[in-house]
């Protein structure tokens, strides 16, 4: 009976080793599939990215003329406004300086409105 018992145990141990080997192979297979899926996803992402970049460059090229024209119009408008501001500055400079000097030099001494007379 002991020979049958040890042979049964030996068979169980071999079955356990075989099961462990199968589990290990399935883990390896799963890991490999995950790596393959990741690399495939990365390739798809890169292809999509390249296609969208090409699409954007085509869009940008088709609208480049409009952008440069708009920039030229904005630059021209800015120059006109700067010239207007400079002219206004030059024409009003003396008057503003005179008003400032008048305010500083011509002081009317008077009591503050919040000051109350004492003893009255």
Structure description:
The chain is an all-alpha fold. Helix content is 87%, strand content 0%. It has one helix and no strands. The radius of gyration is 45 Å and the shape is elongated. The mean pLDDT is 89. Belongs to the V-ATPase G subunit family.
Structural class assignment = mainly alpha
Radius of gyration: 45 Å
Order of helices and strands: H
For the biggest sheet, the summary is:
none
**Number of E-type strands:** 0
Q: What is the CA–CA distance across the termini? A: 132 Å
Oligomer: single chain
How would you state the average pLDDT, rounded?
89
pLDDT < 50 stretches: none
**Strand fraction:** under 5%
Helix run count: 1
The helix content is over 70%
Instruction: Using the alpha-carbon principal axes, give the shape.
Output: elongated
